[in-house]
Design goal:
341 residues; alpha/beta; 434 Repressor (Amino-terminal Domain); Rossmann fold; 3 domains; 6-stranded parallel sheet; 4-stranded parallel sheet; 15% strand
Length: 341
């Protein structure tokens, strides 16, 4: 015979106190006297009583869990976002389930369904690079689960979003290079299905146009395998075969830029004397390579914290039938200028 779990009924019978008073004492309500509370907590501890979270979630229709799906957990940027999410969730007594889509649409769909079946109270999502995410998200939202998108979003999807102004950040970085005298600037970008890849490309292009430098599509290299370092390396090799007069590279992630560094080191191209390199995200790696890399600083921790704050607020309002409007929060970025430019 297994151990019998102590229930609230057992405590009520032993102490001859109502179940509601016991529940209030355990939750710390102020209308239970200190003497009664101590008596209840002492017995609860002795009998190893644990409140039944499943029964409680059935009563409140809440599981106090939120699901998070990111393209990659080992990503320096996303790991800091997750720190921000967990801190804000814990402050509000929420548990966090973290899943990784690996940029695969079918896995992302499976994970959305899993979170839906786990009856999470809300979902935080940074979408994969593959298309068709919108339809899958609509299926989840039919269940009345609030969703907040962050970093990698779908513009046409109706929900709250927390982002940076990728276009402006890229524009500022490329304008900085131009003002330093660089004219033949290559762009190492991502596949143009993800909104942030599109916006960073548009910022690059606009900076050239506004500074009277003709835009040349031949100087745009796409990251084909979502394998940043390797793609940066291969594209640097390809670029130098095709063009001999490049004087700067603007990469959409620090890791792509590290791939460029790796190839340039191999063939003795000096950064920034021969070619300048500008990254994006301000990963730890950007400050420890030689020369230290100029990059765009993204407020990753703040992004996770803000997205969670909005999601929890929407969960509360939905549970209390309070109307709310979707929010779009754009967090500020800044340029971090180091030795590579």
């Amino acid at each position: 015979m297994g151990l019998k779990r102590t229930t609230i009924n057992d405590l009520a019978a032993k102490l001859k106190i109502s179940k509601s008073t016991i529940s209030k004492a355990i939750k710390g309500y102020p209308d239970v006297s200190e003497k009664t509370r101590k008596k209840i907590l002492k017995l609860a501890k002795k009998l190893n009583y644990k409140p039944n979270s499943i029964a409680s979630s059935l009563r409140t229709h809440q599981t106090k869990t939120i699901g998070v799906i990111v393209p990659s957990v080992v990503h320096d940027f996303f790991s800091k976002v997750i720190d921000g999410i967990i801190q804000e969730a814990e402050n509000n007594n929420y548990l966090v389930i973290i899943l990784q889509s690996g940029e695969q649409a079918d896995l992302e769909e499976k994970q959305l369904n899993l979170l839906k079946n786990k009856q999470v109270d809300g979902i935080l999502l940074s979408v994969s690079n593959e298309t068709g995410v919108k339809e899958r998200l609509n299926k989840v939202l039919e269940k009345g689960i609030p969703v907040v998108l962050f970093d990698k979003i779908i513009k046409s999807f109706d929900c709250s979003k927390v982002i940076i102004d990728d276009k402006k950040a890229a524009y500022d970085a490329v304008c900085y290079l131009i003002h330093k005298g660089y004219k033949r600037i290559a762009h190492f970008g991502g596949v143009l299905t993800a909104q942030n890849s599109i916006d960073r490309f548009l910022g690059y292009k606009q900076a050239l146009i506004d500074n009277n430098i003709p835009y040349n599509p031949d100087l745009v290299y796409v990251n084909p395998n979502n394998d940043d370092i390797n793609d940066g390396y291969l594209n640097a090799q390809k670029m130098l075969k095709e063009h001999t007069n490049i004087d700067a590279v603007f990469a959409i992630t620090d890791l792509i830029a590290i791939g460029v560094y790796k190839y340039f080191n191999k063939i003795n191209i000096k950064i920034p004397e021969d070619i300048a390199v500008f990254g994006f995200s301000n990963w730890l790696v950007s400050s420890v390579v030689t020369p230290k890399m100029s990059t765009v600083n993204q407020p990753s921790f703040e992004m996770g914290k803000k997205a969670t704050e909005i999601l929890i607020d929407e969960i509360k309002k939905m549970n209390n039938d309070i109307e709310f409007s979707f929010q779009k929060v754009v967090l500020p970025t800044s340029l971090i200028i180091r030795e590579s430019t």
